[in-house]
């Protein structure tokens, strides 16, 4: 009500919703009137995830830190909340949380981008020259790579960008290439020969590939005769990202600086509506990426996030010496909802990303800056959750919260056996092993955005399995009961991680609740699950509930649980 909605509409609306709930029917919110939908749009709009003031967004583009300012560009439809007319929106920030929207950076005005200014990346060359390379679509919908430069490097916000005279700088030609499958160039890096390199997502002879290009001056590019990497286990790769990491070191590396001994390289690609990655080494002599292990079945490729997270892009933040990754999270309501809301698409919280000490798995954690939004800390120590226990976490704004909880296993004897075939379809396993299905250890976790009678709720939970050598932890974010509205997309997302329970008995969960976003980090960031939910309970004024629970036969302790209400970030 703080937003000042006409009171009579709320009354009208609540009675409409509750009538339908009483009758046990599924609730639909939009068909009645525009006034109702404007209330809904405010309630589902996020408070601290990145969104421009209105309209459609998709991929994050060209993130960078330059002269004290973070830049976030994004695929943007200036004319509506469905995909189309794509140009580059632009927002700037000093802290990655509060954003100032500025004018669009790249618009469709040359033959090589007249049908769309699509995804690309920023590179800072010669120490202080930002340069962006992006994909344009021409009249025939061929995909070409173009360059823009800031008009005035001294403008702190870099508001205006100028197209290079020699655009397009890369044509979609050459052996094995399909001109409509050639896009999303990476940030550039310098090889031992002093030349710049970029990778471009493509389909090469029908297979997914990151094509490699070289240049002296970032303008005149030559295709290298082999790709950086390609795989016959998939088709088209979008949004490749290539970076270096040091095992066990949460500091980031600048790919163009000297890479220390022992560093590994990561190649990320977007396909099948999710972001996957391989860890390996960059063979400087052959100028190729060599993954540590090659998996023929792409269902087994590692994932950046096991939920709704796509087209991510990372950058090296020279201010704090870390690598940050951003991803796009779409709406999962209907297109007509999006039209009624006037906006669609958010970006996940920017995450610090680094490699575990075994050199096997990327870890991610929300940037520390978001902690500045925390208010009214509540905490509990030494809770014990026996089978069937449900502990209500009270005292925070349950629709805008940050929750951190440690679950400590009192015993690991009862772990059920692990079946490796689950790895092929973890969502299926999360549907079978839901929050109400008792296991030896787990399910235990959080229930968020729950209505009074639990008819609506989203459960984020763990289960522990014993595999031959070690323990495998399943983390699910189950949206099947997240909304009573019909026609929503409500999967049960899930991922597994290996955990040394002999050494460490505590499994941590952090969940960021932001109205229609539920973003969770399990095991210290080993599995991340971003999700969108549209619960009726957010529209109702009663308020949602939040619980910690255990439905496994082994008691779990909660040595520490902390929760905060989250303030609204400034940018809307
Ligand atoms: C948005 O719509 C207006 C009016 O129809 C049109 O003139 C303009 O070119 C459109 N902008 C884009 C980026 O498509
Ligand atoms: C460039 O930006 C700076 C800082 O805003 C401003 O003082 C200067 O006049 C601008 N130069 C031009 C040519 O616009
Ligand atoms: C190129 O890719 C497009 C889009 O996937 C496809 O429709 C077309 O058949 C491909 N062309 C060739 C020659 O393979
Ligand atoms: C572009 O680079 C290639 C390869 O280095 C070189 O042969 C060619 O002359 C260059 N073209 C221009 C216009 O500089
Ligand atoms: C696919 O690539 C692998 C190596 O990565 C190779 O062993 C295999 O023969 C290839 N399969 C086909 C059908 O080309
Ligand atoms: C725990 O299991 C019981 C019995 O199956 C079920 O009624 C309850 O909803 C479950 N708790 C959660 C949080 O799913
Ligand atoms: C986001 O929306 C869901 C539900 O409509 C689709 O299933 C996903 O494919 C889509 N994700 C992307 C990356 O487009």
UniProtKB/TrEMBL annotation:
Database matches in InterPro entries: ConA-like_dom_sf (IPR013320), Fructan_Metab_Enzymes (IPR050551), Glyco_hydro_32 (IPR001362), Glyco_hydro_32_AS (IPR018053), Glyco_hydro_32_C (IPR013189), Glyco_hydro_32_N (IPR013148), Glyco_hydro_beta-prop_sf (IPR023296)
UniProt keywords, alphabetically: Disulfide bond, Glycoprotein, Glycosidase, Hydrolase, Signal
Protein name (Swiss-Prot/TrEMBL): fructan beta-(2,1)-fructosidase
Signal peptide positions on this chain: 1-24
The UniProt record lists the keyword Disulfide bond: yes
Alphabetical list of PANTHER family matching this protein: BETA-FRUCTOFURANOSIDASE, INSOLUBLE ISOENZYME CWINV1-RELATED (PTHR31953)
Alphabetical GO biological process terms: carbohydrate metabolic process
Enzyme Commission number(s): 3.2.1.153
One GO molecular-function entry: fructan beta-(2,1)-fructosidase activity
Reactions that this protein is recorded to catalyse: Hydrolysis of terminal, non-reducing (2->1)-linked beta-D-fructofuranose residues in fructans
Domain Glycosyl hydrolase family 32 N-terminal: 49-366
Segments traversing the membrane: none
Glycosyl hydrolase family 32 C-terminal domain ranges (all copies): 369-565
Species for this entry: Lolium multiflorum (Italian ryegrass)
Group of enzyme by EC: hydrolase
Pfam families: Glyco_hydro_32C, Glyco_hydro_32N
Similarity annotation: Belongs to the glycosyl hydrolase 32 family.
Top-rank lineage group of the source organism: Eukaryota
